[in-house]
Amino acid sequence: MSTTTELTAAQYAHGSAPSRGRGLPAAPSRTLLAPLSVTASRLADDGFWGLRARINADATLGHCLAWQERAGWLGNFDRAAAGTLPAGRAGREFSDSEAYKLLEAYCWEQATHPSDELEAVIVALIDRVGAAQEADGYLNTNFGRDGQQPRYSDLEWGHELYNYGHLLQAAVARLRTHGPDRLLEIATGVADHVVRTFGADGIQSVCGHAEIEVGLLEFGRVTGNSAYRDQAELFLQRRGHGVLSDIEWGRSYFQDDIPIREAEVFRGHAVRALYLAAAAVDLAVETGDADLLATLERQWERTVATRTYITGGMGSHHQDEAFGEDFVLPSDRAYCESCAGIASIMVSWRLLLATGNVRYADLIERTLFNILATAPSADGRSFFYSNTLHRRTPGETPEEREQSKRADSSQRAPWFDVSCCPNNIARTFASLGAYVATVSVEGAQLHQYAAGAIEVELPERGVVGLAVATRYPDDGVIAVTVTATPDEQWSLDLRVPAWAAHARVQVNDEAPTVVEPGYARVSRRFAVGDTVLLTLPLDVRVVGADARIDAIQNSVAFEVGPVVYCLESVDLPAGSHVDDFVLDTDARVDAVDGALHVTGWLERVPASPWPYAAAAATPERTPTQTRLVPYHSWAERGPGTMRVWVRR
Ligand SMILES: [Zn+2]
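Above are the sequence and the zinc ion SMILES. Below is the predicted complex in structure-token form.
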């Protein structure tokens, strides 16, 4: 993509879709690739992603709303407005942010599937939030009143600015899908208050949890007010100089140990690190700071090479929800918070727009299919907070009306004391169409393959319409039919994932050509009805791990296309544990109806009082056949044990 010319702000402003205006979760003012609005790219209801987006709309949104009501988190705003706080305040110090994330989700959904019911929910949420705002713009239900801690007295853990970041992102969604209303006034009040309070002459510190930065940058883009960008830049400059207190896990937990320009890898609390990185990419793009962008690219590269699970999951520490050191990627201690997966997509998306490098779209795909698709249950009403790769104990199914205490509960839970993940999942699915494709001055690029339709105006050329028909990832054939085209030559770029050797592209009935991983470009004067057929090879890939990832030596994992597979105990003889199964690596692997059939043995190791010896005890072996299922579908058949990395 190195030949692609950078789009200018004027080209962004031209045309309807890739403008700074409508329907964009992130809208940088200058990038190589321009994102599409949530309405320009529609997911078909029966495709892999469209189906999940519908479940999100029909089940998850209402589920999250009902739980926030039941848990009293929405009631906190009413109590603040009534002046009765702190009596009766419910939830943790960051519970306000869950209302904002859910509000954002509703705004995206209302843009793609408008209804009076959705609008009523949005307006009611905005009214309740707004009623709690104080005259100077401050808005928080947990600080500042008699009987509460003073405002900004606990920047390490208080999350006041973090909450604002999510409020600003909700306001961006509302503004870009509806237009100015009360939420813009509320958000402007908050953002101006932040600038006054934390500006050059204000409190010289940052929030323990990054998020205000990415919120301010996007709010600055949508309002055109550079003061918000400048404030985000101040926050980014301050962090890394020990402005927050030291804690038991060190200042790296808040990324306050090293300035962002000097860091070599993402570290500390994974969600914080990734939200911060997303903001840093935004700042680099807005200010034309090539050095900062290159620094973030290097940090991403090393993080992916040494600190990322095969699922795309990030974070191997439970106690501080943090990245481990390089190659500390044990399957059974994988934390891989769902929010970290979403934050990773946010970083990669911004880097993809800025650089056009296919590796970012590849990681987004891996994370989408193996974290975002895994976290919610098939019915959209329970969620994984952490996404382990090895479950040693079957655990229990949480009670339907119980708020789970444990982020790493063994099964998906309907709600958590800390419920960042369900609401984050909701807003991501509601805006998912926006991550499928982009446009540039050369043409359109398809990064993710989802059945649906795209209609977008190419800068200075005219409208391009594409219909995408595919059963991907169950099938490797993606048919892209041109439904509208300018009367001149343009280019269609199709992503060929790094795993796809010998992919083929065929235009209409012309001879197919083999294409290499990267972007396969078809340039021509297209006609309506032209079809470009991309065929990706869905061979079973059996992969091992770098020798430095000690915990999974002598194991292999299975992948088909972007999907990672796993072994569940429910597919072994009754009473067996997944750790008992040893794969016959010489045997055939047959893919049948979405499962991989494999052969091996069940091992029974004689009981021993001490598990260490010069020579291993000889186990008793019974030949066994079993099957592996997509990781995203695991834990839908009751409590059980599970492994992604299968012993061999
Ligand atoms: Zn979370």
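The pocket of zinc ion is lined by residues 337-339, 385, 420-421, 424 (CB under 6 Å).
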